[in-house]
Amino acid sequence: MIKLADGRFFVSDQTDENATDWHVFSFIVERLTWSALDPDTFVPAPSQKKPDLRKVVEIGFTDLESGAGTPVSSRIDWIEVFGHAVPR
């Protein structure tokens, strides 16, 4: 999930398999397919344009699950982001 400097949010279609044991998973952000994301409803919507990754101001993780007592959960130990600073 990313937030651009103009306040728009996007979420990728990247998924990982269900695992019963610890594993490391990597992906390359510029190769992902993105959907616009409404931050109030957490509902993705198809986007006509790819987000400009030079304008990302925040990056995070979501599984788009509602939570609040559901049996579904994601356990994330850490997230690392590698990138290059761009002039603003």
Task: Tell me what you see in this structure.
- The protein has strands at residues 2-4, 9-12, 34-38, 43-46, 56-59.
- A 5-stranded antiparallel β-sheet has the order 4-3-2-1-5, with no helix packed on it.
- The model has no long low-confidence stretch (mean pLDDT 80).
- The chain has 88 residues and is mainly β.
- The two termini are 21 Å apart.
- It has one domain (1-88).
List keywords for this structure.
single chain; 88 residues; mainly beta; 5-stranded antiparallel sheet; 5 strands; 0% helix; 23% strand
Contiguous helical run count: 0
Give the SSE string. EEEEE
Biggest sheet statistics: 5 strands, antiparallel
Shape category: globular
> What amount of the residues lies in strands?
15-25%
Rounded to the nearest angstrom, the radius of gyration is 14 Å
Number of strands: 5
Low-pLDDT stretches are none
State the helicity in percent bands.
Answer: under 10%
Measure the end-to-end span: 21 Å
Mean pLDDT: 80
Helical/strand content category = mainly beta
Write out the strand line-up for the largest beta sheet, numbering strands in chain order.
4-3-2-1-5
Count of distinct structural domains: 1
In short:
This protein is an all-beta fold and 88 residues long.
Which helices and strands appear, and what pairs or packs with what?
Elements: E1 2-4, E2 9-12, E3 34-38, E4 43-46, E5 56-59
Antiparallel strand pairs: 1-2, 1-5, 2-3, 3-4
